[in-house]
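Our consortium's second objective concerns turning raw sequence data into structural hypotheses that experimental partners can test. To show how far this objective has progressed, the report includes one record in full. It was chosen at random from the queue rather than selected for favorable results. The single chain below, 113 residues long, was entered without modification.
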Amino acid sequence: MTQNRVTVTIELTGSQFQLLRSQAAKRSTPERIVKVHNLIEQLVDRALTPMSNTQYVIAHRDLSIRELHSAGLNDRAMARKLQCSSNTIWRARHRLGLAANDTRGGSHSNRGA
C-alpha cells in the first residue's frame, strides 16, 4: 500500500543545515548515502512513534543527567538527586558521551582505566 506524500518546506539557519549535513555524512556508508531530508524524515517518524514507558523514563533521566552534568555535578551527586545508583549514572553518562566531572565524592570516572 502506497501512502500519499506531502512536501513540507522548513526554514533552517545556515549553521543548522551545516550541522545536519555533517550528521548525515557521519551516518552515510558506501551502500547508503544519507542526506539531510533523510534525517528530518527519521525525526518525524520518531516523533510520531509513541514511546514505551521505559523509553520515556530513560529519555527523561538522560535529559536530567545532561542538565546536572552541565551544572558540574559528579556521578555520586547526580545519583543522589535522581535517586538511582552511581553505576546507573556512569553507564548513562558514557552512553551520552559525557566526560566525568570532578571525581571527589566517589564518581566512577576511573572505571576501565
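The partners drew two points from this record. Residues 94 and 106 are 16 Å apart (CA to CA). The two ends are 53 Å apart (CA to CA). Both points have been shared with the crystallography group to help prioritize constructs.
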